[in-house]
Amino acid sequence: MEYRIEVENLNVHFDELHILKDVSLKIPKNAVTSLIGPSGCGKSTFIRTLNRMNDMISTFKMEGTVLLDGKDIYDPKIDVVDLRKKVGMVFQKPNPFPKSIFDNVAYGLRVHGVNDKDVLEQKVEESLKSAALWDEVKNILDKSAMGLSGGQQQRLCIARTIAVEPEVILMDEPCSALDPISTTKIEDLIHKLKNDFTIIIVTHNMQQATRVSKHTAFFLHGEIVESGLTEKIFIEPEDKRTEDYITGRFG
Amino acid sequence: MHRFIPPKIAQKIMTGVFWASGLLTILILLVIIGYVLFKGLPVVNFEFIFADPVNSGRSGGIFPFIMSSIYVTLIAVLVATPLGVGAAVYLSEYAGENRLVKLIRFGAETLSSIPSIVFGLFGLAFFVIYLGLGWSVLAGGLTLALMALPTILSASEVSIESINKSYAEGSLALGATKWQTIYKVVIPAALPGITTGVILGMGRAIAEAAAVLYTVGAALMIPTSIMDAARPLPLHLYILATEGLSMDNAWGTAAVLVIMILIITVVTNTLVDRYRKKMMGR
């Protein structure tokens, strides 16, 4: 199997707090990997380590290696801007910019120096189509993204992310603020996107993990208890703690 | 504690009290503006606005003073806005919490409560004499910029701080640099609040007599360069009233000043509202 991301012996501290303990995980290429586990177990910290979003927190300290396509992303020579272009992120709460729908999707491209109007228009259309939002917004592209529903906003954020053509998309509980219908739409979208992107999704919803992902990793107290094929984790988990969690005995 | 008034009645009484306070505030404002306009408008006509003064302002118009006001205010805003917004960005996005930041905030707060005549004296000592700018539009404008600065700074800082941090995260996650994030996302989102601060600062500058008293001179002609002496409207008003030249023209000048400020406020509020609606899609 080909791996997009390889994390080895990752330890993360915030001040005295030891958030991630010796975490090792390999993320397969062009597939969906779910990260499950109770709140505060380090899932979000883990994915924010993958695009170096934790760098902004002054108390953040890490040891270990994170390889993207075999290259260490914490190498001082790595350009963080370049990394974040390759590793996109969709947040828990939809966070479109208070700009027009068009400008939201074009934002990443413009930031990376694309200014040709035709190219932008074409890219925006493609991205919105890939995010299954085009038909709903094609006539209101110049309207503010803030006027869209929560589900539409989240699909817009996905469109905005795929517009810069990342290799990896990190999703931090992307459906937790959405209603069931919007959630279904996002899940359908994830199915569609997995052929072209490596997707890592943090979720609290066990059904969602089984529906969308091929691989799953179970986090507990900053450690990975078990990881592997989603089917295996959910049908015959090796560890008692995994079984307790997925059957709802705690968490 | 004993309850003397039943809650429902207390609710009604307090609703009345708040209503009355609101109403009274509006009333006071209307009375002042109304009185100024009532006393001043009879003098105001096309000639009063567009003609030169005659006999030191005893008669004739106030056109040079309107232009003086516009010039000094423009200089004040052009100087204080980049400085104030820049400092606000520094304080809210770069500085964190340290001694220097606390000092800057303390400085801004103190600056905003210093009497304007003190600014005037400082302007005289520093701009007029030390920098050798003389009594000029530039010296007056810079003095007013100092007065407008803390207002613009604190309004901008509050506005930038109130911008949802998730916007900045979204931008950084797309590979934008911090600077791109600030000028493409944070500042546009904070623009309504920043504009309000600029207008407040501008209002302070355009209405100021004491700060320009020692810095701008008291010329009767339209300034043709920023090194010329000038006479903004509030200063003209002050001179007319204290030297007893013409109370009628003093009221007329006051009316023009009030109308100018009203126009600026209404126009910017409308523009800011429109921008905010476009931005937020409501």
Q: At the fourth CATH level, what is the homologous superfamily of chain A? A: P-loop containing nucleotide triphosphate hydrolases
| Percent of residues in beta strands of chain A | 25-35%
Secondary structure class of chain B reads mainly alpha
Which superfamily, in CATH terms, is the homologous superfamily of the domain at 64-237 in chain B?
MetI-like
- The rounded distance between the terminal residues' Cα atoms of chain B is 47 Å
Order of helices and strands of chain B: HHEEHHHHHHHHH
**Average predicted confidence as pLDDT of chain B:** 92
Biggest sheet details of chain A:
6 strands, mixed
In total, the number of domains of chain A comes to: 1
Helix % of chain A is 25-40%
| Total helical segments of chain B | 11
Query: pLDDT under 50 segments of chain B (min length 5)?
Result: none
Strand line-up across the major sheet of chain B: 1-2
- Shape descriptor of chain B reads globular
For the CA atoms, what is the radius of gyration of chain B? 23 Å
Approximate helicity band of chain B: over 70%
What's the β-strand tally of chain A? 10
Task: Report the CATH C-level class of chain A.
Answer: Alpha Beta
Q: State mean pLDDT of chain A (0 to 100 scale).
A: 92
Q: Please give the number of β-strands of chain B.
A: 2
Give a quick summary of the entry:
With 251 residues, chain A is an alpha/beta fold. Chain A has helices at residues 43-50, 80-86, 101-111, 117-130, 134-137, 150-163, 180-193, 206-212, 230-235, 240-246, and strands spanning 3-14, 17-28, 32-36, 60-68, 71-72, 87-90, 168-172, 198-202, 215-220, 223-229. Chain A has a single domain, classed as Rossmann fold (3-Layer(aba) Sandwich), CATH 3.40.50.300.
